[in-house]
Amino acid sequence: MCFNFRIIDIADGNQIIDRNLKTPYSALTPLQMVEYIEMDVQLAIMDMMERKAKEETGRKRLVSVRNQIYKIACFCGLV
């Protein structure tokens, strides 16, 4: 089993999350395991929020198109 990301420490003390790399559980110390679990939860929440935002954008676009079609139908006297 492994995490689908790797936390990379850089020279200035910051950390970068690389989602292209995987980190096996066996390569982590207990303290690192806690850090990776917390980060996994945060990434899952961020992914969920991004997915919801995309769905909402799609809904708004669909409603906008429907409103334009309704306005044209009213203008033509069809409704």
Would you mind describing this structure in some detail?
The protein is an alpha+beta fold and 79 residues long. It has one helix and four strands, in the order ββββα. The strands form two sheets. It has a two-stranded antiparallel ribbon. It has a two-stranded antiparallel sheet with strand order 2-3. The chain starts with a strand and ends with a helix. The model has no long low-confidence stretch (mean pLDDT 89).
What's the topology here?
Blueprint lengths: L1 E2 L2 E4 L5 E4 L4 E2 L5 H47 L3
Antiparallel strand pairs: 1-4, 2-3
How many E strands?
Answer: 4
End-to-end CA span: 59 Å
The main β sheet shows up as: 2 strands, antiparallel
Task: Going across the biggest sheet, name each strand in turn.
Answer: 1-4
Strand content: 15-25%
Envelope shape: rod-shaped
What can be said about this structure in brief?
The protein has one helix and four strands; from the N terminus they run ββββα. With 79 residues, the chain is an alpha+beta fold. 1% of the residues are buried.
Index terms:
single chain, 79 residues, alpha+beta, two-stranded antiparallel sheet, 4 strands
